Amino acid sequence: MKRKFSDYIRKQFQVYLILVLLTIAIVFSAVTFSLFSLYIKNELKRDNQHITDTIHQDFSELFYKLDTLEDKVAQEEIAENILYRELYNMRSQSTIKYNFTILDGDLNIVVSNLYLYNQEQLLKSSNLSESLRYMKLQDKSVIVDEAKTSYLEQQKASMFILTRFADGYIAIEPLVESLTEITNQYSSFTILSDQYSNILFEDTTRYRDEIGKVSVDKKQNMTVKSQFYIYDTPVFLTSIRETTLNQNVFVIGLGLILTILIVLIICVRPLINRITKSYASPLDELMNAIEQNKSGSTTYLIKEQSFEEFETLYEEFNELTLSVRDLIAKNQELAERKRWMEIKHLQDQFNPHFLYNTLESIRYEIIFDPDNASKMIMALARLMRYILNYGRDTVTVTEDLGYIEDYLELQKMRFKERLNFKIEIQDEILTQQIPKLILQPIVENSIKYNMEHVEVLNIAILGRIVENYIQFDVVDDGIGINQDQLDEINDNLQNNQKARDNLGLYNVHKSIQLLYGKEYGVFIQNIGKGLHVMIRIPYKGEVNHD
Protein backbone atom coordinates (compact mmCIF):
# COMPACT_ATOMS: atom_id res chain seq x y z
CA MET A 1 0.00 0.00 0.00
CA LYS A 2 1.44 3.40 -1.04
CA ARG A 3 2.19 6.00 1.60
CA LYS A 4 0.38 9.34 1.72
CA PHE A 5 2.49 12.48 1.80
CA SER A 6 0.50 14.08 4.63
CA ASP A 7 0.66 10.90 6.72
CA TYR A 8 4.44 10.69 6.21
CA ILE A 9 5.00 14.24 7.50
CA ARG A 10 2.65 13.74 10.41
CA LYS A 11 4.26 10.43 11.35
CA GLN A 12 7.79 11.91 11.36
CA PHE A 13 6.74 14.64 13.74
CA GLN A 14 5.00 12.12 15.99
CA VAL A 15 7.97 9.71 16.08
CA TYR A 16 10.42 12.38 17.21
CA LEU A 17 7.93 13.75 19.70
CA ILE A 18 7.27 10.33 21.19
CA LEU A 19 11.00 9.64 21.55
CA VAL A 20 11.50 12.83 23.52
CA LEU A 21 8.42 12.29 25.66
CA LEU A 22 9.30 8.64 26.27
CA THR A 23 12.75 9.62 27.56
CA ILE A 24 11.21 12.15 29.92
CA ALA A 25 8.58 9.66 31.07
CA ILE A 26 11.15 6.90 31.75
CA VAL A 27 13.30 9.25 33.86
CA PHE A 28 10.24 10.46 35.71
CA SER A 29 9.03 6.90 36.34
CA ALA A 30 12.47 5.81 37.59
CA VAL A 31 12.50 8.66 40.09
CA THR A 32 8.92 7.89 41.10
CA PHE A 33 9.76 4.20 41.57
CA SER A 34 12.76 5.05 43.75
CA LEU A 35 10.71 7.41 45.91
CA PHE A 36 7.95 4.85 46.19
CA SER A 37 10.43 2.13 47.26
CA LEU A 38 11.83 4.48 49.90
CA TYR A 39 8.30 5.19 51.10
CA ILE A 40 7.58 1.44 51.37
CA LYS A 41 10.79 0.89 53.33
CA ASN A 42 9.93 3.66 55.79
CA GLU A 43 6.39 2.35 56.13
CA LEU A 44 7.78 -1.13 56.84
CA LYS A 45 10.01 0.33 59.56
CA ARG A 46 7.04 2.10 61.14
CA ASP A 47 4.98 -1.10 61.07
CA ASN A 48 7.83 -3.03 62.70
CA GLN A 49 8.32 -0.41 65.40
CA HIS A 50 4.60 -0.21 66.23
CA ILE A 51 4.20 -3.98 66.53
CA THR A 52 7.43 -4.30 68.56
CA ASP A 53 6.37 -1.56 70.97
CA THR A 54 2.91 -3.08 71.42
CA ILE A 55 4.16 -6.63 72.16
CA HIS A 56 7.12 -5.55 74.29
CA GLN A 57 5.03 -3.18 76.39
CA ASP A 58 2.35 -5.84 76.92
CA PHE A 59 4.83 -8.49 78.08
CA SER A 60 6.71 -6.01 80.31
CA GLU A 61 3.45 -5.08 82.06
CA LEU A 62 2.52 -8.78 82.33
CA PHE A 63 5.76 -9.78 84.10
CA TYR A 64 5.55 -6.73 86.35
CA LYS A 65 2.04 -7.77 87.44
CA LEU A 66 3.16 -11.40 87.87
CA ASP A 67 6.01 -10.28 90.14
CA THR A 68 3.54 -8.19 92.15
CA LEU A 69 1.13 -11.10 92.41
CA GLU A 70 3.96 -13.48 93.39
CA ASP A 71 4.98 -11.15 96.25
CA LYS A 72 1.39 -11.03 97.42
CA VAL A 73 1.14 -14.85 97.37
CA ALA A 74 4.40 -15.10 99.32
CA GLN A 75 3.10 -12.78 102.08
CA GLU A 76 -0.30 -14.35 102.51
CA GLU A 77 -2.21 -17.39 101.50
CA ILE A 78 -4.62 -16.59 98.65
CA ALA A 79 -7.57 -18.78 97.80
CA GLU A 80 -7.58 -20.39 94.35
CA ASN A 81 -10.69 -18.55 93.24
CA ILE A 82 -9.14 -15.18 94.15
CA LEU A 83 -5.92 -16.16 92.42
CA TYR A 84 -7.89 -17.12 89.31
CA ARG A 85 -9.74 -13.81 89.38
CA GLU A 86 -6.49 -11.85 89.69
CA LEU A 87 -4.99 -13.66 86.70
CA TYR A 88 -8.19 -13.29 84.68
CA ASN A 89 -8.28 -9.52 85.35
CA MET A 90 -4.66 -9.27 84.24
CA ARG A 91 -5.54 -11.13 81.04
CA SER A 92 -8.56 -8.88 80.37
CA GLN A 93 -6.45 -5.71 80.71
CA SER A 94 -3.76 -7.03 78.37
CA THR A 95 -3.78 -6.29 74.63
CA ILE A 96 -2.44 -9.78 73.96
CA LYS A 97 -4.86 -12.42 75.27
CA TYR A 98 -3.31 -15.63 76.60
CA ASN A 99 -3.92 -18.93 78.35
CA PHE A 100 -2.59 -19.06 81.93
CA THR A 101 -1.91 -22.10 84.12
CA ILE A 102 -0.35 -22.18 87.64
CA LEU A 103 1.28 -25.47 88.65
CA ASP A 104 2.63 -26.45 92.03
CA GLY A 105 6.04 -28.01 92.58
CA ASP A 106 4.67 -31.47 91.73
CA LEU A 107 3.25 -30.14 88.44
CA ASN A 108 -0.32 -30.32 89.60
CA ILE A 109 -2.57 -27.65 88.15
CA VAL A 110 -3.65 -25.14 90.79
CA VAL A 111 -5.38 -22.52 88.61
CA SER A 112 -5.99 -22.41 84.86
CA ASN A 113 -8.33 -20.88 82.30
CA LEU A 114 -7.75 -23.85 79.96
CA TYR A 115 -10.57 -26.25 79.15
CA LEU A 116 -10.23 -29.58 80.96
CA TYR A 117 -9.23 -31.29 77.73
CA ASN A 118 -6.57 -28.66 77.09
CA GLN A 119 -5.30 -28.98 80.68
CA GLU A 120 -4.71 -32.68 80.08
CA GLN A 121 -2.93 -31.88 76.82
CA LEU A 122 -0.66 -29.36 78.59
CA LEU A 123 0.43 -31.86 81.26
CA LYS A 124 1.30 -34.38 78.53
CA SER A 125 2.95 -31.90 76.19
CA SER A 126 6.61 -31.67 75.26
CA ASN A 127 6.39 -27.92 75.81
CA LEU A 128 6.11 -28.36 79.56
CA SER A 129 8.66 -31.14 79.95
CA GLU A 130 11.28 -29.57 77.66
CA SER A 131 10.87 -26.11 79.20
CA LEU A 132 11.35 -27.55 82.73
CA ARG A 133 14.48 -29.37 81.56
CA TYR A 134 15.96 -26.26 79.90
CA MET A 135 15.08 -24.17 82.94
CA LYS A 136 17.09 -26.50 85.20
CA LEU A 137 20.00 -26.95 82.77
CA GLN A 138 20.36 -23.23 82.00
CA ASP A 139 19.28 -22.05 85.45
CA LYS A 140 16.86 -19.56 83.90
CA SER A 141 13.73 -18.03 85.37
CA VAL A 142 11.86 -17.78 82.04
CA ILE A 143 11.77 -20.09 79.04
CA VAL A 144 10.25 -18.93 75.71
CA ASP A 145 9.44 -21.59 73.11
CA GLU A 146 7.08 -22.08 70.17
CA ALA A 147 3.71 -23.63 71.05
CA LYS A 148 3.63 -27.38 70.36
CA THR A 149 0.56 -28.42 72.31
CA SER A 150 -2.55 -29.37 70.33
CA TYR A 151 -5.38 -27.37 71.93
CA LEU A 152 -8.95 -26.91 70.87
CA GLU A 153 -9.20 -24.12 68.26
CA GLN A 154 -10.53 -21.41 70.61
CA GLN A 155 -7.41 -21.66 72.86
CA LYS A 156 -4.78 -22.31 70.20
CA ALA A 157 -1.50 -20.76 71.36
CA SER A 158 1.34 -19.17 69.36
CA MET A 159 4.08 -19.32 72.04
CA PHE A 160 4.78 -21.16 75.26
CA ILE A 161 6.30 -19.11 78.12
CA LEU A 162 7.17 -20.86 81.39
CA THR A 163 8.35 -18.89 84.43
CA ARG A 164 8.82 -19.69 88.10
CA PHE A 165 5.96 -18.60 90.32
CA ALA A 166 5.93 -18.93 94.14
CA ASP A 167 6.76 -22.57 94.88
CA GLY A 168 5.77 -23.73 91.42
CA TYR A 169 5.44 -22.43 87.87
CA ILE A 170 3.12 -20.44 85.69
CA ALA A 171 2.64 -21.11 81.96
CA ILE A 172 1.65 -18.16 79.79
CA GLU A 173 0.52 -19.01 76.24
CA PRO A 174 -0.32 -16.00 73.98
CA LEU A 175 -3.19 -16.83 71.63
CA VAL A 176 -2.62 -17.03 67.89
CA GLU A 177 -5.85 -15.14 67.30
CA SER A 178 -4.80 -12.26 69.57
CA LEU A 179 -1.37 -11.76 67.99
CA THR A 180 -2.90 -12.05 64.53
CA GLU A 181 -5.37 -9.24 65.34
CA ILE A 182 -2.39 -6.99 66.14
CA THR A 183 -0.35 -7.83 63.03
CA ASN A 184 -3.32 -7.70 60.67
CA GLN A 185 -3.61 -3.98 61.32
CA TYR A 186 -0.53 -3.51 59.14
CA SER A 187 0.19 -4.27 55.49
CA SER A 188 3.35 -6.30 56.13
CA PHE A 189 3.81 -9.93 57.19
CA THR A 190 5.12 -10.48 60.74
CA ILE A 191 7.30 -13.25 62.25
CA LEU A 192 8.44 -13.64 65.89
CA SER A 193 11.51 -15.84 66.35
CA ASP A 194 14.07 -16.71 69.02
CA GLN A 195 17.82 -16.13 68.79
CA TYR A 196 18.22 -19.38 66.81
CA SER A 197 15.64 -18.30 64.17
CA ASN A 198 13.04 -20.79 65.46
CA ILE A 199 9.61 -19.38 64.64
CA LEU A 200 7.52 -18.50 67.70
CA PHE A 201 4.68 -16.83 65.80
CA GLU A 202 3.88 -16.12 62.15
CA ASP A 203 0.88 -14.66 60.34
CA THR A 204 1.89 -16.50 57.16
CA THR A 205 3.62 -19.83 56.55
CA ARG A 206 5.44 -18.81 53.36
CA TYR A 207 8.67 -17.92 55.25
CA ARG A 208 8.98 -21.15 57.27
CA ASP A 209 11.44 -23.76 56.09
CA GLU A 210 11.13 -27.51 56.57
CA ILE A 211 12.63 -27.45 60.11
CA GLY A 212 10.52 -24.56 61.39
CA LYS A 213 13.07 -21.75 61.04
CA VAL A 214 12.77 -18.36 59.40
CA SER A 215 13.79 -18.41 55.73
CA VAL A 216 13.46 -15.16 53.75
CA ASP A 217 14.79 -14.58 50.23
CA LYS A 218 16.03 -11.01 50.48
CA LYS A 219 16.14 -10.60 46.70
CA GLN A 220 12.40 -11.00 46.52
CA ASN A 221 11.46 -9.52 49.90
CA MET A 222 12.02 -6.29 51.79
CA THR A 223 12.61 -6.89 55.52
CA VAL A 224 13.03 -4.92 58.75
CA LYS A 225 14.17 -6.75 61.89
CA SER A 226 14.03 -5.56 65.50
CA GLN A 227 14.77 -7.11 68.91
CA PHE A 228 13.03 -6.93 72.27
CA TYR A 229 13.02 -9.01 75.45
CA ILE A 230 10.43 -11.17 77.12
CA TYR A 231 11.76 -10.87 80.60
CA ASP A 232 15.44 -11.78 79.95
CA THR A 233 14.94 -13.78 76.73
CA PRO A 234 15.69 -12.04 73.41
CA VAL A 235 12.92 -12.22 70.78
CA PHE A 236 13.22 -10.97 67.20
CA LEU A 237 10.37 -9.41 65.24
CA THR A 238 10.72 -9.42 61.46
CA SER A 239 8.42 -7.37 59.22
CA ILE A 240 8.35 -8.53 55.59
CA ARG A 241 6.92 -7.17 52.38
CA GLU A 242 7.41 -8.94 49.08
CA THR A 243 9.09 -6.89 46.38
CA THR A 244 7.32 -9.13 43.86
CA LEU A 245 4.10 -7.80 45.29
CA ASN A 246 5.16 -4.29 44.41
CA GLN A 247 3.18 -4.66 41.23
CA ASN A 248 1.36 -1.57 42.39
CA VAL A 249 4.57 0.35 41.84
CA PHE A 250 4.88 -1.05 38.33
CA VAL A 251 1.24 -0.29 37.59
CA ILE A 252 1.59 3.23 38.96
CA GLY A 253 4.80 3.77 37.00
CA LEU A 254 3.33 2.38 33.82
CA GLY A 255 0.19 4.40 34.35
CA LEU A 256 2.25 7.54 34.83
CA ILE A 257 4.20 6.85 31.64
CA LEU A 258 1.07 6.25 29.61
CA THR A 259 -0.74 9.20 31.15
CA ILE A 260 2.17 11.56 30.52
CA LEU A 261 2.60 10.32 26.97
CA ILE A 262 -1.08 10.52 26.16
CA VAL A 263 -1.56 13.95 27.75
CA LEU A 264 1.50 15.43 26.07
CA ILE A 265 0.70 13.89 22.70
CA ILE A 266 -2.87 15.17 22.96
CA CYS A 267 -1.61 18.64 23.89
CA VAL A 268 1.00 18.79 21.13
CA ARG A 269 -0.96 16.96 18.46
CA PRO A 270 -2.95 20.04 17.36
CA LEU A 271 0.34 21.77 16.69
CA ILE A 272 1.58 18.79 14.65
CA ASN A 273 -1.66 18.67 12.71
CA ARG A 274 -1.49 22.38 12.03
CA ILE A 275 2.03 22.13 10.65
CA THR A 276 1.31 19.08 8.48
CA LYS A 277 -1.95 20.59 7.31
CA SER A 278 -0.13 23.63 5.96
CA TYR A 279 1.98 21.30 3.77
CA ALA A 280 -0.61 18.71 2.82
CA SER A 281 -3.87 20.69 2.75
CA PRO A 282 -4.13 20.95 -1.06
CA LEU A 283 -3.55 17.22 -1.50
CA ASP A 284 -5.95 16.33 1.31
CA GLU A 285 -8.68 18.49 -0.21
CA LEU A 286 -8.30 16.83 -3.58
CA MET A 287 -8.26 13.32 -2.08
CA ASN A 288 -11.33 14.12 0.02
CA ALA A 289 -13.18 15.31 -3.07
CA ILE A 290 -12.28 12.10 -4.91
CA GLU A 291 -13.52 9.97 -1.95
CA GLN A 292 -16.79 11.90 -1.90
CA ASN A 293 -17.18 11.30 -5.62
CA LYS A 294 -16.44 7.57 -5.23
CA SER A 295 -19.09 7.26 -2.49
CA GLY A 296 -21.74 8.55 -4.91
CA SER A 297 -21.93 12.20 -3.87
CA THR A 298 -22.22 14.65 -6.74
CA THR A 299 -22.78 17.77 -4.62
CA TYR A 300 -19.24 18.16 -3.28
CA LEU A 301 -17.23 20.86 -5.08
CA ILE A 302 -13.74 22.10 -4.18
CA LYS A 303 -13.79 25.74 -3.07
CA GLU A 304 -10.39 26.05 -1.36
CA GLN A 305 -7.93 28.61 -2.76
CA SER A 306 -4.47 27.11 -3.10
CA PHE A 307 -1.40 27.11 -5.32
CA GLU A 308 -1.94 27.71 -9.02
CA GLU A 309 -1.23 24.11 -9.98
CA PHE A 310 -3.78 22.75 -7.54
CA GLU A 311 -6.42 25.29 -8.57
CA THR A 312 -6.18 23.99 -12.14
CA LEU A 313 -6.81 20.46 -10.88
CA TYR A 314 -9.72 21.71 -8.73
CA GLU A 315 -11.40 23.40 -11.72
CA GLU A 316 -11.15 20.26 -13.84
CA PHE A 317 -12.55 18.14 -11.03
CA ASN A 318 -15.48 20.50 -10.41
CA GLU A 319 -16.42 20.55 -14.11
CA LEU A 320 -16.38 16.75 -14.21
CA THR A 321 -18.54 16.54 -11.05
CA LEU A 322 -21.11 18.97 -12.45
CA SER A 323 -21.32 16.99 -15.70
CA VAL A 324 -21.92 13.75 -13.78
CA ARG A 325 -24.54 15.45 -11.60
CA ASP A 326 -26.47 16.69 -14.66
CA LEU A 327 -26.37 13.26 -16.26
CA ILE A 328 -27.63 11.53 -13.10
CA ALA A 329 -30.46 14.09 -12.73
CA LYS A 330 -31.59 13.49 -16.31
CA ASN A 331 -31.57 9.71 -15.86
CA GLN A 332 -33.53 9.97 -12.59
CA GLU A 333 -36.13 12.21 -14.23
CA LEU A 334 -36.55 9.75 -17.10
CA ALA A 335 -36.91 6.83 -14.70
CA GLU A 336 -39.44 8.72 -12.56
CA ARG A 337 -41.53 9.66 -15.60
CA LYS A 338 -41.51 6.06 -16.80
CA ARG A 339 -42.56 4.78 -13.35
CA TRP A 340 -45.47 7.21 -13.00
CA MET A 341 -46.62 6.49 -16.57
CA GLU A 342 -46.86 2.79 -15.63
CA ILE A 343 -48.73 3.58 -12.41
CA LYS A 344 -51.11 5.88 -14.29
CA HIS A 345 -51.76 3.18 -16.84
CA LEU A 346 -52.60 0.64 -14.11
CA GLN A 347 -54.82 3.10 -12.25
CA ASP A 348 -56.76 3.94 -15.39
CA GLN A 349 -57.71 0.27 -15.68
CA PHE A 350 -59.79 0.58 -12.50
CA ASN A 351 -62.25 3.05 -13.96
CA PRO A 352 -63.81 1.11 -16.87
CA HIS A 353 -63.85 -2.08 -14.84
CA PHE A 354 -65.80 -0.47 -12.00
CA LEU A 355 -68.03 1.58 -14.33
CA TYR A 356 -69.17 -1.48 -16.23
CA ASN A 357 -70.24 -3.31 -13.05
CA THR A 358 -72.07 -0.27 -11.66
CA LEU A 359 -73.99 0.53 -14.88
CA GLU A 360 -75.06 -3.09 -15.09
CA SER A 361 -76.56 -2.77 -11.58
CA ILE A 362 -78.34 0.51 -12.48
CA ARG A 363 -79.86 -1.13 -15.59
CA TYR A 364 -81.64 -3.66 -13.40
CA GLU A 365 -82.75 -1.04 -10.86
CA ILE A 366 -84.35 1.18 -13.57
CA ILE A 367 -86.74 -1.68 -14.30
CA PHE A 368 -87.65 -2.58 -10.71
CA ASP A 369 -87.05 0.59 -8.63
CA PRO A 370 -86.59 3.81 -10.65
CA ASP A 371 -86.21 6.01 -7.49
CA ASN A 372 -83.42 3.84 -6.17
CA ALA A 373 -81.86 3.88 -9.65
CA SER A 374 -81.90 7.68 -9.53
CA LYS A 375 -80.08 7.69 -6.18
CA MET A 376 -77.57 5.22 -7.60
CA ILE A 377 -76.91 7.49 -10.58
CA MET A 378 -76.25 10.46 -8.21
CA ALA A 379 -73.91 8.35 -6.12
CA LEU A 380 -72.16 7.20 -9.27
CA ALA A 381 -71.71 10.80 -10.33
CA ARG A 382 -69.98 11.60 -7.05
CA LEU A 383 -67.75 8.58 -7.48
CA MET A 384 -66.77 9.56 -11.01
CA ARG A 385 -65.92 13.09 -9.85
CA TYR A 386 -63.64 11.54 -7.22
CA ILE A 387 -62.02 9.18 -9.71
CA LEU A 388 -61.22 12.00 -12.11
CA ASN A 389 -60.28 14.55 -9.40
CA TYR A 390 -58.19 16.66 -11.76
CA GLY A 391 -55.54 14.00 -12.30
CA ARG A 392 -54.47 13.43 -8.67
CA ASP A 393 -52.79 10.05 -8.17
CA THR A 394 -52.60 10.00 -4.37
CA VAL A 395 -55.22 11.02 -1.79
CA THR A 396 -55.58 10.97 1.98
CA VAL A 397 -57.04 7.95 3.74
CA THR A 398 -60.04 10.12 4.70
CA GLU A 399 -60.74 10.98 1.06
CA ASP A 400 -60.47 7.40 -0.13
CA LEU A 401 -62.71 6.21 2.72
CA GLY A 402 -65.38 8.72 1.59
CA TYR A 403 -65.23 7.16 -1.84
CA ILE A 404 -65.50 3.60 -0.38
CA GLU A 405 -68.51 4.63 1.71
CA ASP A 406 -70.23 6.04 -1.40
CA TYR A 407 -69.39 2.86 -3.26
CA LEU A 408 -70.76 0.60 -0.50
CA GLU A 409 -73.88 2.72 -0.10
CA LEU A 410 -74.37 2.39 -3.85
CA GLN A 411 -74.13 -1.39 -3.57
CA LYS A 412 -76.40 -1.45 -0.50
CA MET A 413 -79.09 0.36 -2.48
CA ARG A 414 -78.96 -2.59 -4.79
CA PHE A 415 -78.69 -5.46 -2.31
CA LYS A 416 -80.45 -3.80 0.67
CA GLU A 417 -80.46 -6.03 3.82
CA ARG A 418 -78.31 -8.67 2.13
CA LEU A 419 -75.23 -6.42 2.42
CA ASN A 420 -73.83 -5.03 5.67
CA PHE A 421 -70.52 -3.22 6.17
CA LYS A 422 -68.49 -1.43 8.84
CA ILE A 423 -65.42 0.78 8.59
CA GLU A 424 -62.97 1.23 11.51
CA ILE A 425 -59.83 3.28 10.83
CA GLN A 426 -57.19 4.35 13.37
CA ASP A 427 -57.15 8.17 13.72
CA GLU A 428 -53.35 8.44 13.27
CA ILE A 429 -53.51 7.30 9.63
CA LEU A 430 -56.45 9.38 8.40
CA THR A 431 -54.13 12.09 7.00
CA GLN A 432 -51.68 9.67 5.35
CA GLN A 433 -51.34 9.84 1.55
CA ILE A 434 -52.19 6.59 -0.26
CA PRO A 435 -52.66 5.63 -3.93
CA LYS A 436 -56.16 6.37 -5.12
CA LEU A 437 -58.60 3.40 -5.38
CA ILE A 438 -56.49 0.73 -3.67
CA LEU A 439 -59.40 -0.48 -1.49
CA GLN A 440 -62.22 -0.35 -4.06
CA PRO A 441 -61.17 -3.38 -6.19
CA ILE A 442 -60.86 -5.54 -3.04
CA VAL A 443 -64.34 -4.57 -1.81
CA GLU A 444 -65.75 -4.98 -5.32
CA ASN A 445 -64.35 -8.53 -5.58
CA SER A 446 -65.83 -9.42 -2.19
CA ILE A 447 -69.31 -8.40 -3.39
CA LYS A 448 -68.90 -9.85 -6.87
CA TYR A 449 -67.82 -13.34 -5.84
CA ASN A 450 -70.00 -13.78 -2.74
CA MET A 451 -73.46 -12.26 -3.27
CA GLU A 452 -74.59 -15.07 -5.56
CA HIS A 453 -73.66 -17.69 -2.93
CA VAL A 454 -74.71 -16.22 0.45
CA GLU A 455 -77.94 -14.82 1.85
CA VAL A 456 -76.21 -12.02 3.79
CA LEU A 457 -72.67 -10.69 3.29
CA ASN A 458 -70.84 -8.79 6.03
CA ILE A 459 -67.77 -6.77 5.09
CA ALA A 460 -65.36 -5.11 7.57
CA ILE A 461 -62.75 -2.55 6.50
CA LEU A 462 -60.08 -1.91 9.13
CA GLY A 463 -57.03 0.37 9.10
CA ARG A 464 -54.22 0.48 11.67
CA ILE A 465 -50.49 1.03 12.21
CA VAL A 466 -48.46 -2.19 12.54
CA GLU A 467 -44.78 -1.61 13.42
CA ASN A 468 -43.56 0.80 10.68
CA TYR A 469 -46.29 0.28 8.11
CA ILE A 470 -50.03 0.86 7.63
CA GLN A 471 -52.19 -2.24 7.22
CA PHE A 472 -55.68 -2.19 5.73
CA ASP A 473 -57.75 -5.32 6.32
CA VAL A 474 -60.78 -6.18 4.19
CA VAL A 475 -62.56 -9.12 5.85
CA ASP A 476 -65.78 -10.81 4.69
CA ASP A 477 -67.74 -13.85 5.81
CA GLY A 478 -68.36 -15.15 2.29
CA ILE A 479 -67.43 -18.46 0.68
CA GLY A 480 -63.66 -17.86 0.70
CA ILE A 481 -61.31 -19.31 -1.92
CA ASN A 482 -60.15 -22.83 -2.57
CA GLN A 483 -56.66 -23.27 -1.01
CA ASP A 484 -55.03 -24.31 -4.29
CA GLN A 485 -56.52 -21.32 -6.05
CA LEU A 486 -55.46 -19.06 -3.14
CA ASP A 487 -51.88 -20.33 -3.37
CA GLU A 488 -51.90 -19.66 -7.11
CA ILE A 489 -53.16 -16.09 -6.61
CA ASN A 490 -50.50 -15.38 -3.96
CA ASP A 491 -47.77 -16.82 -6.22
CA ASN A 492 -48.94 -14.63 -9.10
CA LEU A 493 -48.87 -11.56 -6.87
CA GLN A 494 -45.42 -12.27 -5.49
CA ASN A 495 -43.99 -13.07 -8.94
CA ASN A 496 -45.75 -10.12 -10.64
CA GLN A 497 -47.64 -12.42 -13.02
CA LYS A 498 -50.85 -10.82 -14.26
CA ALA A 499 -53.95 -13.08 -14.06
CA ARG A 500 -57.05 -12.39 -16.18
CA ASP A 501 -59.48 -13.30 -13.35
CA ASN A 502 -57.84 -11.07 -10.75
CA LEU A 503 -56.91 -7.99 -12.74
CA GLY A 504 -58.10 -5.46 -10.11
CA LEU A 505 -56.20 -7.26 -7.35
CA TYR A 506 -53.05 -7.41 -9.47
CA ASN A 507 -53.27 -3.71 -10.40
CA VAL A 508 -53.50 -2.68 -6.72
CA HIS A 509 -50.54 -4.91 -5.79
CA LYS A 510 -48.40 -3.69 -8.70
CA SER A 511 -49.14 -0.02 -8.01
CA ILE A 512 -48.14 -0.32 -4.34
CA GLN A 513 -44.88 -2.11 -5.17
CA LEU A 514 -43.96 0.44 -7.84
CA LEU A 515 -44.51 3.26 -5.37
CA TYR A 516 -43.08 1.80 -2.17
CA GLY A 517 -41.03 -1.32 -2.90
CA LYS A 518 -41.43 -5.09 -2.95
CA GLU A 519 -41.88 -5.53 0.80
CA TYR A 520 -45.33 -3.90 0.50
CA GLY A 521 -48.44 -4.90 -1.46
CA VAL A 522 -51.47 -7.23 -1.21
CA PHE A 523 -51.58 -10.44 0.86
CA ILE A 524 -54.52 -12.87 1.00
CA GLN A 525 -55.52 -15.65 3.40
CA ASN A 526 -58.59 -17.75 4.23
CA ILE A 527 -60.09 -17.32 7.70
CA GLY A 528 -62.28 -20.41 7.94
CA LYS A 529 -65.52 -18.81 6.73
CA GLY A 530 -64.67 -15.95 4.44
CA LEU A 531 -61.55 -14.21 3.17
CA HIS A 532 -59.01 -11.81 4.67
CA VAL A 533 -57.19 -9.43 2.28
CA MET A 534 -54.35 -7.32 3.73
CA ILE A 535 -52.89 -4.22 2.06
CA ARG A 536 -49.59 -2.91 3.45
CA ILE A 537 -48.00 0.46 2.68
CA PRO A 538 -45.28 2.37 4.60
CA TYR A 539 -46.23 4.65 7.49
CA LYS A 540 -44.76 8.14 6.99
CA GLY A 541 -45.46 9.48 10.47
CA GLU A 542 -47.74 12.30 11.50
CA VAL A 543 -48.54 14.78 8.72
CA ASN A 544 -48.39 18.48 9.57
CA HIS A 545 -51.03 20.58 7.74
CA ASP A 546 -49.95 23.94 9.17
Automatic annotation (TrEMBL):
Keyword Nucleotide-binding: yes
Domain of life where this protein originates: Bacteria
Domain Signal transduction histidine kinase internal region: 341-419
Topology relative to the membrane: Multi-pass membrane protein
Residue ranges of every copy of the Histidine kinase/HSP90-like ATPase domain listed in the record: 436-539
PANTHER family documented for this protein: SENSOR HISTIDINE KINASE YPDA (PTHR34220), SENSOR PROTEIN KINASE HPTS (PTHR34220:SF11)
Record's protein name: Histidine kinase
Lineage: Bacteria, Bacillati, Bacillota, Erysipelotrichia, Erysipelotrichales
